[in-house]
Design brief:
Length: 419
């Protein structure tokens, strides 16, 4: 542990198992469950169900790696911390840089998605900026407030999804799923759909980034990560089958809001209204958890001076990294007021897959004493992350590589200045 980390103020351990599971679910059952199926269907048609299975397997590999690492290093920062501790400073930095940049863009996308469901004409950007500020202030009021609001939002979203899925199953047809075993673009399309759908499963990292605020972290964090992932997989499979049974592969690919369109084709307007409210709340829940995760990663990077040192402050009363969270919120507000990032799924998937490559590589390098899962699982995770990155849309790969190149340049300049 560096001197900077050792001398920095710490966060308080206030979260139990239930809190951690709900924060993980809130991160995963977000805007992705309402939006990620469309680009996946464009890549694989009804073969997105195979892609969903592949994404779930990769997510399991990554989740177990994160659980093993979080038990050994129960401090804020997630894979940024693990990469530094196990592989070296640069590996941790690249993971942290990819997470901070990619997920800040994801925050903007979630805020704009929320506003798209609730804002009147002409008010999209002001409403998106407002929800960012409100949720950042909730986070700054303490992690227990974040956990309580997340429980409420996740519960309401799950109710909306159950209503929507039942409506689709009652009005859909299994004949729409007949082509699932012969995806239009073959194995490549299936892998591309898996990479895009992986975007939706990446939220279990939020539990790891909050490792400094979980009680009994060696016991609670691994259980919470696996439980949250299992719950999210069940939800995503149920909704995917429901949507495809109504719209089919082509209809899902052509839709900008697949679940809402599927419900509209089979149900009365009030059910469509429930879906719209659920989508807005899911976006808000994902945004809430993501701001919290970014704040903790920013705190960890500031402790090591990979971000400006003044961001490592912890509020004396609420015990949260308030400066890091407010800085993240300010950055997101600037983005939502200037750029439409609702199509940022591919770019976010690029950064997150490389983030988890570092997590798997770090877990693979851990000693036998720290091991909770077999090494072959982490080797599969490393390989799978790289394969899915390679099959993402080429624009996402190019933008992702450019962002990482900028990050390398920033750290090189800062290192030279410090030296």
């Amino acid at each position: 542990m560096s001197a900077v980390t050792a001398s920095s103020p710490s966060l308080d351990r206030r979260l139990g198992l239930g809190d951690a599971v709900f924060i993980g679910l809130g991160s995963m059952i977000g805007a992705g469950v309402f939006a990620a199926y469309a680009p996946a269907a464009r890549a694989a048609g009804t073969g997105l169900l195979i892609g969903l299975a592949v994404a779930a397997v990769v997510a399991y590999c990554n989740a177990t790696a994160s659980a093993q690492l979080a038990a050994a290093y129960p401090r804020a920062g997630g894979t940024y911390l693990y990469g530094r501790e196990v592989l070296g400073d640069w590996w941790g930095y690249l993971a942290g840089w990819g997470f901070m940049v990619g997920k800040t863009a994801s925050c903007a996308a979630m805020a704009l998605t929320f506003a798209a469901y609730v804002a009147p004409d002409g008010w999209l950007r002001p409403v998106a900026a407002t929800v960012v500020v409100v949720l950042a202030l909730v986070n700054c009021a303490g992690i227990t407030r974040t956990a309580l609001l997340t429980r409420v939002l996740v519960s309401l979203v799950l109710i909306a999804l159950v209503v929507a899925a039942v409506a689709c199953w009652r009005g859909g047809s299994t004949s729409e799923l007949d082509g699932w075993s012969s995806p239009e673009h073959g194995p490549y399309g299936v892998l591309q759909s898996a990479g895009l759908l992986f975007f939706a499963f990446a939220g279990y990292a939020r539990i790891a980034t909050l490792g400094e605020e979980v009680r009994e972290p060696q016991r609670v964090i691994p259980r919470a990560i696996v439980a949250a992932l299992a719950g999210a997989v069940v939800v995503y499979v149920a909704v995917a089958v429901a949507v495809l049974s109504v719209l089919g592969g082509a209809g899902t690919a052509a839709s900008s809001a697949p679940l809402a369109d599927a419900v509209r084709a089979t149900s009365s307007p009030w059910v469509v209204g429930v879906v719209r409210v659920g989508a807005a709340l899911a976006s808000a829940g994902g945004l809430l958890a993501l701001i919290a995760g970014l704040g903790r990663t920013g705190l960890a990077m500031a402790r090591e001076r990979d971000l400006p040192g003044w961001l490592d402050a912890v509020h004396p009363r609420f015990r949260v990294p308030h400066r890091a969270e407010l800085t993240v919120a300010a950055s997101v507000v600037v983005l939502v007021l200037t750029i439409d990032l609702r199509g940022a799924i591919g770019f976010s998937s690029f950064g997150v897959l490389l983030y988890y490559f570092v997590a798997n590589a770090s877990a693979y390098r851990q000693s036998a004493a720290a091991r909770r899962f077999p090494r072959w699982l982490q080797l599969l995770g490393c390989t799978s992350c790289l394969v899915l990155v390679a099959t993402l849309p080429w624009r996402s790969v190019v933008v992702g590589l450019a962002v990482f190149a900028v990050g390398i340049g920033v750290r090189a300049v800062r290192s030279g200045a410090v030296g």
